Amino acid sequence: MEIYKCMEDYDFEQLAFCFDPISGLNAIIAIHDTTLGPALGGTRMWTYDTEEEAIIDAMRLARGMTYKNAAMGLNLGGGKAVIIGNPRKDKSEELFRAFGRYVQSLGGRYITAEDVGVNVEDMEIIKQETNYVVGLRGKSGDPSPVTAFGVYNGIRACAKEIYGSDSLTGKVVAVQGIGNVGYNVCKHLYEEGAKLKVTDIYEDNVKKAIDNFNAEYVEPNKIYETECDIFSPCALGAIINDETIPKFKCKIIAGSANNQLKEPRHGDLLKDKGILYAPDYVINGGGVINAAEEIYGEYDREIVLNKVATIYDKILKVIEISKAQNIPTYVAADKMAEERIAKIGKIKSKFI
User: Fold this and answer.
1) Any idea what DSSP says for residue 305?
2) 240: which strand partners?
3) Is 158 helix (H, G, I), strand (E, B) or coil?
4) Which of 80, 195, 197, 314 is catalytic?
5) pLDDT tens digits, 293-327
6) Which end of the chain has less neighbouring CB within 10 Å, N or C?
7) Is 80 assigned a catalytic role?
8) Where in the chain is the domain with CATH 3.40.50.720?
9) Across-strand partners of 78?
10) What whole-number distance in Å separates Cα of residue 176 and Cα of residue 9?
């Protein structure tokens, strides 16, 4: 790939490549935009097939964080980090401490937190080497339950638009990915009386959902075509694509996964098919609200949850813009975020 051309095309500020032969660290930190403030975004650990795949994922995720933080009304820019490795086999103290030193070297331009494959314990190790880390024990902690609460509220907003009521009682929801966020999304849905169909690549995750929520298991490759009212992608991105769109048998797609649309045009195809899509970086913004509260000062869980509950209203606003301008919801969300970046950018100099 032409890295500098890609950075130019998507308005990136910086890519930092992190390598440490002693710990085996291979990581990429992507900083997309710092107009609103330092770049906040989690660290993901995943078994990427190629280095190019890891770079592309870091850049897609970082750009999404710029829009997410703007849409949530935060004074923070967008960034993301990915560590190449198996989170179930390759973690070590030396790896995360090496990564922490790279984060520290950026001087506050990037603030990290948990993401897929990384947990609070890992953040505590990173904290030994840098001050620019949130999601710590005793403070905002694991963002997954808060993110899930926001997703749940976003799903309710979508249900209100499509079904005339935000009640999820009796609704069939297919949840793809029962990790930390997906599990908590299932918990909220189950407690309201929704019927769950679930899938995950890890058997233990599936078993927990079946045991605790009376969920029905669906094979991973069958989840897209399962009959449901709502499809909730809570695993990895790019799952809305040319192959999956013809299979969907739902009225709503609303979940926590980042970068759900493989290409922007897939958002157009969903609109044409009559499926309401909740833009991922709006519905899953609870985690950054949670982290930002830790950055700003005293952490108060009640205040955080009250702010996260407003994701319900943010989704309704996106839908309103979409209907008023006859544009797909992903375009409406972009307009909402870009408008704030442009306005604040005129009165605030770039964070250095």
Assistant:
1) H
2) 261
3) helix
4) 80
5) 998 877 899 999 999 999 999 999 999 999 999 99
6) C
7) yes
8) 144-284+313-337
9) 33, 40
10) 32
